[in-house]
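Lecture notes, unit on protein representations.

Consider one protein chain, 89 amino acids long.
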Amino acid sequence: MFLTVLAATAALSSSYASPAPQMPVAAAVSTAVLVDCQVSGANLTDCKAVDADGTQAAEAVKMAAQVEVPEAFALANPGRILIKMNVNP
């Protein structure tokens, strides 16, 4: 009986392999860009980047144009809004 338990314990402990060490993955650095947009129904229109230029500003404006605005939000916030878009390089 004792030998059976000892053999089972040895089999379990020898079959367990420690997990391979994992290398940390470098996180993509994103840049926050403020975008000023007009709320027009369910869409954002006339978007302009406030604090960025170049490709990051163009990407932020492009992403903002794809945002769908819920009807309740559009009714409660007519006019212009300022949103933050995170842009990956």
